[in-house]
Amino acid sequence: MEISPEDYERFCRYLESASGITLGANKGYLIRSRLSRIMEEVNAPTLGALLNMLDRSASASLKVRVIDAMTTNETLWFRDEYPFEILKDTIFPEIGGPRGLPIRIWSAASSSGQEAYSISMTVSEYQQSHPGTLSAGVQILGTDIAPSVLRQAREGVYDELEIKRGLSAERRNRFFTRDGAKLRVRDELKARVEFRECNLLQNFSMLGPFDVVFCRNVLIYFSNENKRDILARIAKVLKPKGYLFLGGSEPLASYSQEFDMVRCARGVVYRLRA
User: Fold this and answer.
1) Which end of the chain is more exposed for a tag (fewer CB within 10 A), N or C?
2) What pTM was estimated for this model as a whole?
3) What is the DSSP letter of 255?
4) Model confidence pLDDT, tens digit, residues 80-112
5) Please, is 197 exposed, middle or buried when counting C-beta atoms within 10 Å of its C-beta (0-12, 13-18, 19+)?
6) How many CB atoms lie within 10 A of CB 7?
């Protein structure tokens, strides 16, 4: 697929407007690898022809397919480990005592569900080692812009390669059951988790309030302006002194002054200022 500079720039503008993703320069190979099949199926000989189709009001389903294909869905279980250790060592002891309301945790850009289910496993492990805690329960919301990964997340079924990416044998045996050649998340984990479609560029105020938000390794794909906007709106759906987890390469200081950094033994988390 040949991509003209004009079509490339036009597609970058379209992608950022539709999803917030900033593609940057020299990423034509991503477009080729992710959109070639769609273009063949809809008989679009060039990227410009595909964009013309996307501009038509009748192409809503095509828009979903293109955004789905261009969304980065790289994920694994217990990514970087330390956020889940901080949940167990710092956050749950602080907010997990007797209380009338369940703890609410949001996994933003949850992809195919590994992060949300990792949080649910962390809850089970904490309750096992601290009987009687988290008595009001924990509600976990996973959201993503891509319908295809949300379907897998809701099913909770993964192949062997997906299971091996960050999941220990002990957790695999405890939290999954065999489903043919694949493994299925146990019902006790799924009972805590709900998945919804959500574009972070759009209004998500009705999703909150939350005690904890995981928005890890996603802001790197947004422009600086959109980063500031998303973080400001996350602050509004967090409860007072609620916690925010970001990715290791996503510094907060340049984009928001509404959080204090909390240094823990293995990493950092951000707490909303009172």
Assistant:
1) C
2) 0.89
3) T
4) 999 999 999 999 999 886 667 899 999 999 999
5) exposed
6) 18
